[in-house]
Amino acid sequence: MSPAVFSHGDLRLYLLSLLAEAPQHGYGIIQSLTDRTGGTYTPSAGTIYPRLAKLEEEGLVSKTVDGRTTIYAITDAGRAELASREGDLAGIEAGLTDSVRLIANEVRQSVQEAMKSLRADLASAEHDERSAAKSRPRPASDDARIISREELHRADAVVNAFRARVRTDLRTHVAKGGVLPASVVSELEDGLDAAAHAVTRALGALGSGR
Fold it and tell me: What is the pLDDT of residues 163-188, one digit of tens each?
């Protein structure tokens, strides 16, 4: 389970720090949080707007309406609170760095485990085929084509199961506000390329053994 990005009450203070830099509308605040946390946290409007309303009630934030856009700005009272809690804000920043690192490691580990599973499935299929080939006489050409089609369906099932697992893991992680570093995608690409080459080599070996 991914670690929480913000502890209780931390988001409130962090919103003030964002508005201290410049007035923003709600979507801009959400985007700033996503950018500042490396994609590990993308809050919903239902998370942000009630907190902004509460900050406004406390006199720490003001809002102005410009057409359809509502702009939020920190007040003098909000700046005073930020100044009084400077140490707390520094702790929040440090915690964000740790959360980004932990969540990125979780995603990387998930992809690595999925790649190991795919390689194991491919190795198992290759082993089963070799064992079956030793225990049965060489089939006639028609039988060989039938067996090949059956194995092709099995290979499709293995690849599709892997694709579904990785896709579900990644989509679920990102939907929860998790980060997906480019290094993890590159690692996935490299692993799939290595698996494809392994299949090509195995097929080549079978072809040369005819």
Answer: 878 877 777 777 676 777 788 888 88
| Residue 24 bridge partners (DSSP) | 72
DSSP 170: H
Angle formed at CA 18 by CA 34 and CA 7, multiple of 5 degrees: 65
Number of alpha carbons in the 13 Å side-chain half-sphere of residue 103: 26
Tokens 């702790």 sit at which residue? 91
Handedness of CA 119, 124, 129, 133 (dihedral sign): positive
Give the 3-state secondary structure of residue 75. Answer: coil
67-112 confidence digits (pLDDT tens):
888 999 999 999 999 999 988 888 887 777 666 677 667 767 777 7
DSSP annotation of 2 reads P
How far from chain centre, in Å, is Cα 206? 38
Residue type, 77: A
Task: Tell me if the pTM is above 0.90.
Answer: no
Q: How many angstroms separate the CA atoms of 202 and 16, rounded? A: 60
Q: Of 199, 82, 69, nearest to 129 (Cα)?
A: 199
- Tokens 């985007």 correspond to what residue? 31
Q: Which amino acid is at 64?
A: T
User: Which residue carries 């099932």 as its tokens?
Assistant: 157
Helix H or strand E encompassing 83: helix 76-84
Q: Which two tokens stand for residue 7?
A: 């502890």
